Amino acid sequence: MTRVAIMNAVRHTTILAGGLCLMLSASTIGHAQLFNFSHQDLIDYTAQNPFERLSDGRPRVPDEMIARARGLSAEEIWEVLEDKQFHNQYADGFRVLYPGKTMVGRAFTVQFMPERSDVDNVAVAKAKARGIPELTNQTAIDMLQPGDVLVVDLFGKKTDGTIVGDNLFYYVMKATHGGGLVVDGSVRDLDGISEIDMPAYFRSVDPTPVGNVMLTGINTPIRIGGVTVMPGDLVVGDREGVYFIPPQAVKDVLDRADEIHIHDEWTKKKFDEGKYKSSEIYGSPTDPKLRREYEEYLKKRLEEIRSQRNSH
Amino acid sequence: MTRVAIMNAVRHTTILAGGLCLMLSASTIGHAQLFNFSHQDLIDYTAQNPFERLSDGRPRVPDEMIARARGLSAEEIWEVLEDKQFHNQYADGFRVLYPGKTMVGRAFTVQFMPERSDVDNVAVAKAKARGIPELTNQTAIDMLQPGDVLVVDLFGKKTDGTIVGDNLFYYVMKATHGGGLVVDGSVRDLDGISEIDMPAYFRSVDPTPVGNVMLTGINTPIRIGGVTVMPGDLVVGDREGVYFIPPQAVKDVLDRADEIHIHDEWTKKKFDEGKYKSSEIYGSPTDPKLRREYEEYLKKRLEEIRSQRNSH
Amino acid sequence: MTRVAIMNAVRHTTILAGGLCLMLSASTIGHAQLFNFSHQDLIDYTAQNPFERLSDGRPRVPDEMIARARGLSAEEIWEVLEDKQFHNQYADGFRVLYPGKTMVGRAFTVQFMPERSDVDNVAVAKAKARGIPELTNQTAIDMLQPGDVLVVDLFGKKTDGTIVGDNLFYYVMKATHGGGLVVDGSVRDLDGISEIDMPAYFRSVDPTPVGNVMLTGINTPIRIGGVTVMPGDLVVGDREGVYFIPPQAVKDVLDRADEIHIHDEWTKKKFDEGKYKSSEIYGSPTDPKLRREYEEYLKKRLEEIRSQRNSH
Amino acid sequence: MTRVAIMNAVRHTTILAGGLCLMLSASTIGHAQLFNFSHQDLIDYTAQNPFERLSDGRPRVPDEMIARARGLSAEEIWEVLEDKQFHNQYADGFRVLYPGKTMVGRAFTVQFMPERSDVDNVAVAKAKARGIPELTNQTAIDMLQPGDVLVVDLFGKKTDGTIVGDNLFYYVMKATHGGGLVVDGSVRDLDGISEIDMPAYFRSVDPTPVGNVMLTGINTPIRIGGVTVMPGDLVVGDREGVYFIPPQAVKDVLDRADEIHIHDEWTKKKFDEGKYKSSEIYGSPTDPKLRREYEEYLKKRLEEIRSQRNSH
Amino acid sequence: MTRVAIMNAVRHTTILAGGLCLMLSASTIGHAQLFNFSHQDLIDYTAQNPFERLSDGRPRVPDEMIARARGLSAEEIWEVLEDKQFHNQYADGFRVLYPGKTMVGRAFTVQFMPERSDVDNVAVAKAKARGIPELTNQTAIDMLQPGDVLVVDLFGKKTDGTIVGDNLFYYVMKATHGGGLVVDGSVRDLDGISEIDMPAYFRSVDPTPVGNVMLTGINTPIRIGGVTVMPGDLVVGDREGVYFIPPQAVKDVLDRADEIHIHDEWTKKKFDEGKYKSSEIYGSPTDPKLRREYEEYLKKRLEEIRSQRNSH
Amino acid sequence: MTRVAIMNAVRHTTILAGGLCLMLSASTIGHAQLFNFSHQDLIDYTAQNPFERLSDGRPRVPDEMIARARGLSAEEIWEVLEDKQFHNQYADGFRVLYPGKTMVGRAFTVQFMPERSDVDNVAVAKAKARGIPELTNQTAIDMLQPGDVLVVDLFGKKTDGTIVGDNLFYYVMKATHGGGLVVDGSVRDLDGISEIDMPAYFRSVDPTPVGNVMLTGINTPIRIGGVTVMPGDLVVGDREGVYFIPPQAVKDVLDRADEIHIHDEWTKKKFDEGKYKSSEIYGSPTDPKLRREYEEYLKKRLEEIRSQRNSH
Question: What is residue D28's DSSP assignment?
C-alpha cells in the first residue's frame, strides 16, 4: 500500500467510538469499544469462559491448546459443536491464502459500517475528547497481541474494502506471531502478501485502499457470514473454511479429536489389509471381535498420546 | 402464521438485551437497547436532528414533511444527498410489494444476529432481571408507533429469516398506520400479506417462521445493504429501492423536489410543443430567452405550490 | 409453437420406454413407464394412500379435497408437514404465471434427461415393439386427466428446455380442466400462454422448442428442486412456491388450515380493536380470559364451517 | 432527472466522434459516426436491405410492415430466422416495462465505452473541429426519428449507466412516436417512466445519472447480449425478450406468422372439440382427412386475411 | 468422518431398493437396482458395447484402453464424440482435487434423491425382505471394483450432501485402485482427502456428513450436469472437466488421439523453426510440399507408436 | 486443437474487414482494421504517446520499461493512474494461468462479435477483394510481434469462445516471446496450455473450438470488462488482475514504483525491529526524526537503484 493511498484511507475511515478510552492503562487497551460494549459487557457475555482473560477482557484460550488445535479439521469440530447445539459457528466461501496451513488463534474482532458523515463526525469528536488523534484500520491493528487472529466484518465489500495491503499484513504477522486474518471483505497487494507467512481468509482482492467506511467496533460481537463471532473465540481455519469455537467448548473438541485421529488411523490400517468391506469397519466395526480390537487400540493409543503430550 | 410456528420462533429467537429497561416509563419505551446503545448515545449520534424527538429518543421528522415526502422519487433524493456528501444512503435489490405506492416514515431499526446459545442465555437472563419475560421479534414490533417504518437487519436470511407473516404484518400496519416494512431478510404468508395495504420491501419469501437467530438491537444503528441506517431516518421507498434520509437533510430534499417537479413539468410541456431537440431544453434551456421563460415559470409555480401548501 | 419447430422437437425427443405398453387397456394408460417402474411399484411406493386410485395407479385425492385446498397457503402446509417429518416437500424459485391464483391438483410426473443417441435408440426400438409409433413430450401430455397438474423435470434447461408453447399449454388446460403446470425448465410463447387461464410455474422462457433431451419417465418418482415428487401427490402452488403433499397428509393439512383461518380471523379482529400489543394476542392470547374467548370462537366457527361445508 | 445531475452527466459523457459531421445537411444527420463507420459502410454492410433507406442511411422497413409486426411473438420469429441461419438475433434477461405491450421499430444504435480521458479528449477536439459543441447521450437522442427504437450498449452498467430518466424518456417517446428503448444498461426515475406510454427493456434501475462513460458510436454495429445489432434492424420486443430482424428477413417472418396464427387458431378450435389427443392435431394432423381440412382452412383464412389487409 | 457423524448419516440415508438382491451370487453383485432397472435393462441399454462385461453387467472397457486413455484431454475426445453426434457427454464446473492428474476409469453410478419418509420406509422394508440389513452410501461403495470411477448424483447438494469424508475416500481409493470420484454434490474432510492419491471432482466441501437424502439408484442411468451417464461409460477427467465416453466410441477416440498427438508434435516442431506464420502450418499446412512432409511424418510416427505399443 | 476442429472454426469465424489491406507493405501490417479505424485514427487517438511507434502504428513502450514493469503490482499502478484521473484501467475476475508470474507487454487488441451471416458475407467479400484469402482468429495471431500481449474481446463467451488451444497458444508464445494473453472469453486444451511458459488470463475453459462469432477488429479500441483498451497500452497482469496503462503514464508509474518499493523495504525493516506500532511507521512516520531517517533512506536507495540500472 502506498503513502498516498493510506492517507486517502485515513480520510474515509474514522472510528465510531462511544466510550473509547484507549490510552488510560495497559489493562484497558483494546478491551472494548463502540456503542458502549464495555469491558464488563465483554466479561458478562463470555461468562462461560473457563480460562484466564487477556488484559483487554477477552478469554485467553491457553497456548498449549492453541498448539494442539493445529491438528484439527473443521469436520472434527463440527461433531462436538453440534452436540453442544452450536449450529452456526462455521463460515466458508473465502479465498484461502495457504490451503495446506491450518490457522489457529484467538479472535480479535473488528467491525466496519458504511461511511455516513453525520455519525462519523460525532465519533471522531468523541474519540478526540478521549485523546485518540486519528481513527483508522490501524487503530485496531495496533492493539493486536501474539496468538490473535484478526477477524473483520467489512460486509463483503470489494472496492474500498481492503483491510490491509502487504505492509500492514506484514505488521499483523509480526504482532500476532503469525496468527492470521479473516476478513469478510478484501485485501490488496496480493503479490506482496503471498510472500508473507501467515494464514489469511478473504472474500476478494482489489487494488483500492480501504475507504468509504467507518470503524464501528473493536472486540465487540460481530457477524462473519452466518456466524456470530465473540472476542476470544478460538478461530480454526482449514483448507476450506473457518470455525469459531466458544472457549468453553475448546477442551472437548480437542479431546474428541484425539479419538477421531486414532479411529481414522485404525480404520485406514484395516482398509490396508484389504480384507473388509467399508461397512464392516466404518463408522464402527460390525464384528464384535473387531470392535474389541479397536477399543483396545484406542485405549492404548490414547495413553501413548497423552503420555507423549505430558512429557513435553 | 400458525400458533405452533410462532412457538417455535419464540424458542429460537431471544433478545440480547444489555441494559434493557422497557417497562419503567413511557419516555424510555423502545428508546435504545442492546450492547448498551443508550438513550444518550442515540441523542449524541443524531445530534444534527433539527426536529423534536419521539419519547424513545428518535428524531421526529414532522408529519407534514412525511406527507410532502410521498411525492419524492429516489432520484430526486440522490441529488441533494450527493451534494451533502451522503454517498451511501440508498439500498435496492428488494422485492417490492406495491411498486406503485411510495413508502414514507421514520426508521424504527431492529437487528438480529445468528443464534449462539452462550450469548443468548446471558441476554435472556439480563432481560429477565429487568422484568422482560420473553424476547422475540414481537418485543420489537410491540414498540412501533404511528408513522414508523420497521427496518430490520436479518442479514439476508431466507429460511428461518421471516420477520413477519400475515398476522404480524397486519399488526405492524395497524400500529404504524400503514407506515411500512424494510427487511434484509424474508417474509412468510405472502398470499395473506398481499391483501394488506402497507408498503413492504423484502429480499425473499419462505414458508418457515423466523428462527435460529437472536435479537441484538432495537433502535440502534444497523446496516441494510450498503447503508448505515440510524433510528429516526426518514425512509422513502419508491418502485425500485429505499432511501434513508438523515433528518437534517429532509427539508432541503423536499424543497429541491419542488423545483425538480416544476422543472419536469415545464420540460415536458416544451417537449409537447414538438419544436425543440432535447438538448435545447434539457438539463437547462440553451436559448437565453427560453431560460428566462423557464425561470419565470419556476418562480410562479413555486409561489403557487407554497401558497397552496400553506392554505391547508 | 410452429409445425417446423415441433418436427424438430420430435426428432430430438424420443422416449426411453422399457416396458411401455400404452395401448392395451384403459387401466394401464399412463400408469408407469421407463426403467420398469411398474404399476405395482407405483402402488407399493404410495402404499399409505388413503384414497381410491386413478386407472393409471396414482392415488386419487378426492375432488372435494382439491376444492378445499384452493384456500391453502404454503405456510399452512408447512406446519403439518413439519410435524409429520416431511422437511423437503416445498420448491420455489419459479416464475409464477398468475401470482394471485392458487394452483391445486394431482401430480402427473414426467422426467427428461439429456439426449444420448445410443440409449435413445434402444428406447425407440422398445417402444416401437410395443406399438407406440412416436415418442415426444406429447406422448405424456396426451395421458393427462382432469384434476392433474403436469409436473416436469427438465433439469432447469432453458434453451431447448421448453415443455410447451401456447398450443400445447392450451391443450393441457383443456385436458386437466385448468389444473396447472410445474416445470423445472422453460416454456415458450409466453405472450400466447398469458392469455390462457391455467396456473403455471416455470424457471424461464425461451423461443426455442424442446430438443436435445429424451423422455425417461412418466409417473415415476422425480426431483423438482429439493423435492422428491411422487405421482398423485397433491400439488398446491401459491404466490411464491409449490408444495407437494403426500396423499396421506392431505386431510390433516386441510383440517388444520380451518383452524388457522379462524385463528387469523380472530387475531385480526382483536388487532382491529386497537387495545392490545401484538404479543398479548399472537401466537396465542396471554390473558386466560382472552384465551377462553378465542377457544369458544374457534369452536363456534369450526362448527359453522363444517355444517356449511356439509350442506353443499 | 435533475439539472445538476445532467450537468454532471455532460461532464462525464463525451462523444468519440471521428468523422462526425452532423450539421451539413438533412441527408447526413445521424447517419454514421465514430471510428469512421461511414455512410458508405452502413450501406455496404446492409446491402441486402430490400427497402428504401432513411436519410441517415439506415434501411427503412416500411410502416405497414411495422404495423403488421405488432402481432408477432419471439417464437414465430425464431422459426424463420433459424431457417435462414440467423442463430444469434435474440436477447433476453431484461426488465420489461410493459409486459403486455409489443415493441416494434427500426433500430437506432448507440454505443458507449468506459471513459478514458486521453481518448475522450481527442474525440471532443475532433467533434469541436466539426462544429459539434457538446457530446452527450442527448447528441444521439436528438437524432431519433418516428418509428425508431433506441438500442444502446452500456455494457450492462448499473451505477452511472442510466441512459435516460423520465424527462429524456418522455422526449424519446415523443420523437419516436412511442417506438421504444432497449438498453444493456440502466434507467433512472422509474416512477416517472412508469407513467409514460412507451415500451422499454433495461437491465436495471439506479438513482445515479449516466457518467464515467464515453459515447463511441451512433448507428454503428453494436452488441446487445449475444446479438450483433445493425442500424435499421426491425426490433420486436415481446413479454420476454427482443428480436433484431435483418430487414431482408422481415417479409418472410410476417408471411410465416400469418400461417402460424391460422394454424394456432385451427388447433385450438380442434382442441375445443375435445375429441382429439394433442398429437392427433398438433404439430400437424395425423389423419389425412383432418390434414386436408386444415389445409383448406389455412387457404381460406389466408385469403381472408390478405384481402382484409389490402382493403385497408 | 467421525463415528457419530456416520451414525447420523445412516439414520438419514436409506436405500430405495426395489428388486435389490445383492447377496445371491457374484454375478449379480451391484449389477442393477432401484425402481427395477434390471440386469437385462442394463444390458439392453448398453447393447452397443463391443467389450466383455463385468459381473454386474456393466461394459468392461479393457484395462489396456484405460491405460492409453491416460494421455487424453477433453478436447481430443470432443472431436470424435461430436462426429458421432454425442453432444452432451461433457460436464464441468467441478472443483478438481488434482488438476495435473488425469482420471480414467469405468463409471459406477449412484443416485440420491431428497429424503421423503413414506417412500423411504417402503424401500427399507423391501431391502430388508431381501436380506440387506442397512442402506447407506456405504452399500454402494462396498460394491466398487478395481478400475471404477464412482459417479454420484447428489443434485448439487452442499450441506448434508457429502458423499465421503477422508476415511471412505481412502476406502474408495483402495477398492478402485485409485480410480476416482465424480460427485454432483460435496465431500468433507478435505484436509484429509488432500493427502490421498486419487483424482476427485466435486461441487463443494462441507463439514456436515451426508443426510436428508435417500439412495435411489446403483448402476442406473444418472444425470451429472448436462450429461446422461450410463454404467460402464469410460470416464476421463482432465484439468477442467469430465468426459463420459460410451464404450462403443472408446477405440475411435483413442486412435484419433494418436493422430492428434502426432499432429501437435509436428506443429510445434514447425513453429519452433520460426519460419512460418501459424496459418501456414495449422490446422493443416497450406503448402502442398509441407502437407506431404506432414503426412509422411504422421505415417512414420503412427507406426512407431503402434509397434512400441504392441511390444509391451 | 484438432484439424477437424479448426476447419469448423474457420467455417464459422470470418473477418469483418472494411478497408483491410494487409499485404501492401510492412508499415501497414496489422495496423488497423475494421469499420475503418485507420492507421491515422490509431495515431490520432494515441496522440499522447511519448515513445516511438511500431510499424503497425501502435505506441512502442520501450523494452527497457517493459523489463522494469515486471516488478510492478496492480496496487502500485492504481495510485498513479488515480492521480491522473484514469479510474477505469483495471480488469479482474479472470482465471490466472500462472499466479506467481507477472505478465508485461504491449496490447495487441482483437475484437469478435456474434456471428451474423449478412454482415459476415460482406466482410468476407471485402477482404477477398483485398487479397486476403481467409479470415480467422489466426489472421490476427499471425500479426503478433515480440513483446506483445494478445488482448481479445470475446464478450465472455465460454462455449465456442476459445481463442486458442495449446497449438496456437504455443505459437503465440513463440511469436510474442512469451508476452501473454488476456481474453474475455475462453481457451481450450488447458492440459496442454499448462505446459507452455506464457502468462494467460481467461474467463473459462471449454472443449469446443471457437465458432459462431465473427472477427470485427484488429488493433482497434476494445472493451475488456470495465476497461477501454487501446492498442499499444502497457499491459501488466499480476496474481489477481490486469492493468492497461496508457503509454504516456508508464514512466510515472515506474518511477513511483521505485519509491514504493523502497518505502515498503524500510517499513518492513522498522516493523522487524518490533519497537513500533503500525501507525507510528505507516503510511508515513509520525516522529519527525524517523521521518527524516526515512527520507534519507529513500534518497540513498533511489540513487543506488538508478545507478545500478544505468550500469546495465
Answer: G
Three-state SS letters, chain E: CCHHHHHHHHHHCEECCCCCCCCCCHHHCCCCCHHHCCHHHHHHHCCCCCCCECCCCCECCCHHHHHHHCCCCHHHHHHHHHHCCCCCCEEECCEECCCCCCEEEEEEEEEEEECCHHHHHHHHHHHHHCCCCCCCHHHHHCCCCCCEEEEEECCCCCCCCECCCHHHHHHHHHHHCCCCEEEEEEECCHHHHCCCCCCEEEEEECCCCCCCEEEEEECCCEEECCEEECCCCEEEECCCEEEEECHHHHHHHHHHHHHHHHHHHHHHHHHHHCCCCHHHHCCCCCCHHHHHHHHHHHHHHHHHHHHHHHHC
- Mean pLDDT to the nearest integer, C269-285: 94
Q: By CA distance, what is F217's nearest residue in D?
A: D35
ipTM, 2 dp? 0.89
* Chain B residue with the nearest C-alpha to that of A214: B228
Q: What letter does residue A204 receive in the DSSP assignment?
A: E
Residues 138-157 of C with CB under 8 A from E: 155
Whole-angstrom distance, CA of residue D202 vs CA of residue D91: 11
Out of B231-240, C290-299, F24-33, F228-237, least confident range:
F24-33
pLDDT of C3? 36
- Mean model confidence pLDDT for chain D: 88
Residue B289 is placed in which grid cell?
A: 430567452
C-alpha cell at A175: 504482532
Q: Give per-residue pLDDT as tens, D215-264.
A: 999 999 999 999 999 999 999 999 999 999 999 999 999 999 999 999 99
Question: Which of D287-296, E19-28, F54-63 has the least mean pLDDT?
Answer: E19-28
Q: E138: closest CA among A267, F211, C274?
A: A267
Bridge partners, D183 (sequence order): D152, D202
Average pLDDT, chain C: 88
Interface of D with B in 164-203 (CB under 8 A): 165-168, 170-171, 174-175, 188-192, 194
Query: Out of B109-118, C165-174, F38-47, which region has the weakest mean confidence (pLDDT)?
Result: F38-47
C-alpha cell recorded at residue E118: 413414506
CB B46 within 8 A of CB B234: no
Q: Are E170 and A74 within 8 A, CB to CB?
A: no
The Cα of F180 is separated from the nearest Cα of chain E by a number of Å equal to 16
Nearest CB partner across the interface for C246, out of E113, E115, E118 = E118
pTM score = 0.92
Residues lower than pLDDT 70 in chain B: 1-36, 134, 312
CA nearest to B71 within chain D: D191
- Contact status, residue F66 vs residue F179, Cβ threshold 8 Å: no
For residue C164, the Cα-to-chain-centroid distance in whole angstroms is 16
Task: Tell which of C266, C282, C297 to mutate to test the B interface (max B CBs under 10 Å).
Answer: C282
Kindly list the residues from chain F whose CB atom is less than 8 angstroms away from the CB atom of residue A178: none
Query: Residue D5: pLDDT band by 50, 70, 90 thresholds?
Result: very low
Q: What are E241-262's pLDDT values in tens digits?
A: 999 999 999 999 999 999 999 9
pLDDT at F96 over 60: yes
Residue D124, pLDDT score: 81
Closest residue by Cα to residue D154 from D106, D108, D210, D73? D210
Residue type, F286: T
Please state which of the ranges B140-154, C24-38, E243-257, F141-155 shows the lowest mean pLDDT.
Answer: C24-38
F87 at the D interface (CB within 8 A)?
Answer: yes
Angle value at C-alpha D173, between D169 and D179, nearest 5 degrees: 120
- Cβ within 8 Å, pair B77-D207: yes
What the block records as the C-alpha cell of B176 is 404504524
Those residues whose C-beta lies under 8 Å from the C-beta of residue F205, and which sit 6 or more positions away, are: E92, E239, E240, E241, F95, F162, F186, F187, F188, F190
